[in-house]
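question for whoever is on the cluster today: can someone run the full assembly for these? two chains, 528 residues total. i dont have access anymore since they changed the login thing
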Amino acid sequence: MMHPSDGPPESETETDGLFAVGRATPLGTYLKDLWRRRDYLLRVPVEDLRVQHAHTLLGNLWLLLNPVLQVAVYLLVFGVLIELDRGVENYLAFLTIGVFVFHQTQRTVSAGARSVVANVGLIRALRFPRAALPMGSAIGQLLSFTPVLVVMLTVTVAHGHTPGLRWLTLPGLLLALTSFGLGAGLAAARANHTYRDLENLLPFLFRLLFYLSGVLYSVDHFVDNEALRSLFALNPLYCLITTWRWALLGTDASGLVWVGTIGWPVTALVGGFAAFRSREATYGSGA
Amino acid sequence: MTARTRPLAIRCTDVEVQYTIRSHRPLLRDLLRGNPPYTTTVHAVRGVTLDVAVGESVGVVGHNGSGKTTLLQAMTGVLPLASGELLVRSLPTFLGVKAALRPRMTGRTNIRIGLLAQGLTRDEAEAQLPAVADFTDLGPAVDLPMETYSSGMRARLHFAIATALTPEILLIDEALAVGDRTFREKSAQRLDEHRSTAGTVMLVSHNLGEIRRSCERTVWLQEGRIVADGPTDEVLRAYEA
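^ ran it for u. tokens below:
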């Protein structure tokens, strides 16, 4: 460095092949890294499920019992005690679909929000693309949704809605639900890492959404104004619940609701992933 | 200035690392009262310039709070740099005592997950598993949930997982100190093997014997700056004086 004539050649060879740490990985490499960890992504949720009910008597039977008991309670409260089912045929099936779709979305988002904060140890210890954590938790939620789905379909069929052509859209609707939950979860995980406050706020946000998504009542029945009704399409959860009911109960779903059902998951996934990745380097610092 | 012919594994140029700590009071109260410093900035590393060659084993000594752990963590890219440049040949693996894996799962499951997280396929992980489990010396305890382990057992499990894939650059933060003597010898042996295959090691420890045993070169940090860098014997003589 003192003698420019003989300095550079040597330093060029010794720094050959070095790169700066903390520099963002190119998107392509990042996605390839994620793909290489597909076995990890599937394994962790399975192991998590395995230990989840480790200290209970009934074990993983709870995965099935939980939704069954939930339906029983709703049947008792809304079907027998309060007659809220005005304007809705087959209220139990209507309610079951609304509640389960809503809760599944909420669970996927909340699990994603916690996934980074809860795994700081793993992040500090091992090098891997951090998006694997929210993705793993979303897959875990999808797995535990299986028994819930079974209960939901049983209730639907028991109410006389036999499987029809519309059932073919179910895999797509499940994908939309999970994608939205994952996308929102990625964004929430990033925000939650900086401000733990979000974890306390999320339940209230979801409770508010619960009443605005037509889970308990039919929006079409209560809201007459066309413009006001289209405003509901701004709520991703309302869109998802409405299209799930369309598929299972044969009810209506407007074009706007379909745009929301496809548009919201795509927006959430792209935006959430970009937001998550922009802070990727800091997740181990545990502020 | 030392002339080196070996290629470099790590090059730190004037590296500064700061991190902010939240005050224990809630943020909002400070904001409302107009107290701007509701966070404290810690200048943990204040301008470190350091070259580590491939295959070198460097000890890092210094008192508590001298920036040793922060420097190592910056090398893995977990902490953003405030200024300076940090180049590496490959992303280092960091091995610390506090890092917890999944407490409710068994040691064996933790090994499996750890291997998969580092990018092995299922078949590769299953093939590696017995050797890694064996190295931990946990015996039948490897099939007990990790929450039942002592800190030494945890450290062994963790060391075994982190070194299973023989990362090119390994950063060790006090992780060997908790193991018993047999395990320490075993892990020192693994580090020797690692170095003989051109692996690079940086070892933070308060156990100077361990540094003498494993490192030919030692860096002494004080308040985030290097005060000495040279052959282990010389630096430790000055450090202990």
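summary bc i know u wont read the tokens: Chain A has 13 helices and one strand. Residues 24-273 of chain A form one domain.
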